[in-house]
Amino acid sequence: MSRLVARLLAAVSQQHGAVRSAVIPRRIPLFTRCFFTSPGIQSLTRYNKTTDWHKKLTPEQYFVTREKGTEEPFSGIYVNHFEVGMYHCVCCEVPLFSSEAKYDSGTGWPAFKEAHGTWERDESHASIVRRPDNSLGSAGTEILCKNCDAHLGHVFEDGPDPTGQRFCINSAALKFKPRENGVSDAEEQK
């Protein structure tokens, strides 16, 4: 019905050019609406999109962080690493996990109880983003770097107390920086 009315109005407006502008608003072609973007809209990430990740990262790091790959279990350099410090994103070096939240899960990947900047279950100040992921064959949750969208690993709900979460992170996605004094926060407060 609406097509018939539109055709009828179009035919009338062609005969009366002055009536067209007063009666029928000028239509924007459909393809223009689909592709219109504001020059002010930027990516949600603050990282420069022109970075050549192939030059910055090793092939394994690129595969894991940019192509959402997974390293072989028990092959990562941080699986049995328990030095005091901070684990950063290998791509943008933003702090992600504290060594104090790391534990041995026995799964073959570095495991953490919580992300750096987390307060109880509030991750608004953490440098990670959770995203639904079905690539493992079942519903799961992927962990990405909030700053550069690097794939870090996955989170599971079978971790230790108090969070009950296990952040299973690829070593290839991490860069460790030791704490200068080498003393954990718990030991420092004593």
How would you characterize the overall build of this protein?
The protein is α+β, with helices and mostly antiparallel strands and 190 residues long. The chain contains 6 helices and 9 strands. It has helices spanning 2-15, 17-23, 30-35, 53-56, 59-66, 185-188, and strands at residues 85-89, 95-98, 102-103, 111-112, 128-133, 140-145, 151-156, 166-169, 174-178. Strands 3-4-8-7-6-5 form a 6-stranded antiparallel β-sheet. The chain has a 3-stranded antiparallel β-sheet with strand order 2-1-9, with no helix packed on it. It is elongated and about 80 Å long.
Q: Topology of this structure?
A:
Blueprint: H1 2-15, H2 17-23, H3 30-35, H4 53-56, H5 59-66, E1 85-89, E2 95-98, E3 102-103, E4 111-112, E5 128-133, E6 140-145, E7 151-156, E8 166-169, E9 174-178, H6 185-188
Antiparallel strand pairs: 1-2, 1-9, 3-4, 4-8, 5-6, 6-7, 7-8
Helix pairs in contact: 1-2
Strand count, sense and barrel status of the largest sheet are:
6 strands, antiparallel
Tell me the structural class.
alpha+beta
Count of strand segments: 9
Strand content: 15-25%
Coarse morphology: elongated
Instruction: Give, in spatial order, the strands making up the sheet with the most strands.
Output: 3-4-8-7-6-5
